[in-house]
Write a structure and sequence with these properties.
Blueprint (H helix, E strand, L loop, with lengths): L6 H9 L1 E9 L2 E6 L3 E6 L13 E7 L2 E7 H4 L12 E7 L2 E7 L1 E9 L3 E2 L3 E2 L2 E2 L4 E7 L2 E6 L1 H5 L2 H6 L2
Parallel strand pairs: 2-13, 5-7
Antiparallel strand pairs: 1-2, 1-8, 3-6, 4-5, 6-7, 9-12, 10-11, 12-13
Length: about 160
């Protein structure tokens, strides 16, 4: 049974917003719920680790805390590029794990109304990308909103954080 929303309820949904830190990988802009973001830093020396997935670049020492570093380009199986002047690390905390996410560049913090976020489309009964939480419609563009738990939540990272 479907239920119609009153005009007030529709209006309330469009007024409720979530904040997303947006960043760029190649030509695509992604968003990450700001609640996970702890800080944004420039590239630091990364100590490589043996026998880890290719998207784990190693660890850094951030003010005495050892943090595993994930290259999001590698995680998404994109072409690897050398780190440049705009490359940065987004330090996040997910499931009590601190992780640094290497991205091409950070863009801005966007307020996206809940009513402007759609679930990712399904193709052949599979999610198009299991890292995508939703599609945020901003102006005339679509932002791919990532699921931080799926992106970072991994047994590999659990081992590195213990």
């Amino acid at each position: 049974m479907s239920q119609l929303l009153s005009d007030d309820e529709v209006e309330d949904e469009s007024l409720t917003t979530s904040k997303y830190l947006t960043f760029v990988l190649g030509s695509e802009t992604y968003g990450l719920d700001i609640q996970y973001v702890r800080e944004i830093i420039g590239i630091l020396p990364i100590t490589p680790l043996p026998d880890v997935p290719t998207w784990i670049k190693g660890v850094i020492n951030l003010r005495g805390k050892v943090i595993p570093i994930m290259d999001v380009r590698a995680r998404f199986m994109l072409e690897e590029l050398p780190y440049g002047g705009r490359t940065c690390i987004i330090v996040v905390m997910v499931q009590e794990w601190w992780v640094g996410l290497v991205v091409d560049t950070v863009s801005e913090v966007l307020d996206i109304p809940t009513g402007q976020i759609e679930p990712p489309p399904r193709v052949a009964n599979r999610s198009t990308d299991h890292f995508i939480q939703g599609l945020g419609k901003v102006d005339d563009r679509v932002r791919l909103l990532l699921d931080a738990d799926r992106l970072v939540g991994s047994e590999d990272l659990a081992t590195l954080n213990s």
